[in-house]
Predict the 3D structure of the following.
Amino acid sequence: MTISNILSNAPIDPQKLQRATRIITALQEELKKYIAQGSGPFLAAIYDEQGTCISKTANSVISGGCSHNHAEMNAIKQAEEKLKTFDLAPHRLSLYVTAEPCLMCLGGIMWSGIQTVYYGLPSKRVEEITGFDEGFKPNWLSEFHKRGISVYGNIAPQIGEEVLAMYVKNGHTIYKPAR
Ligand SMILES: [Zn+2]
């Protein structure tokens, strides 16, 4: 864990960052299994402040036949269904995800009431490795800061790169609209 490499819009608590590094590293390891079962190459989990996992879902764009089924969107939906609410804010939840959220997921996170976001590999590297278009996201860290959402990124990026490179090397589908 190197604090100086972390991309953030809030003060860094070394203990929380250490926990996030453990969780994201574990998600990356687990993601390999999900990919082998046909999932897209991203995994997200939502935890409460006590460290209880509320939801955990992989990207299911291909298996679910829906372009919105990104890991973050799936995890938010599952958490809201479980907690029976459209507003997660009172539950003070953190989202952990193996890569930086795309344009759509930033909107989904903003609308959900998620309080903190921890992500693994930055979008630039995701795009370079996979060819996915993660979208335009001007000043998203400061826009999230304005809305009270803390963000910590570039957590354990090496393993994130390995998993995505493996996804591409093994010939899995790069799902995107044909333009
Ligand atoms: Zn997304």
Observations:
- The radius of gyration is 15 Å.
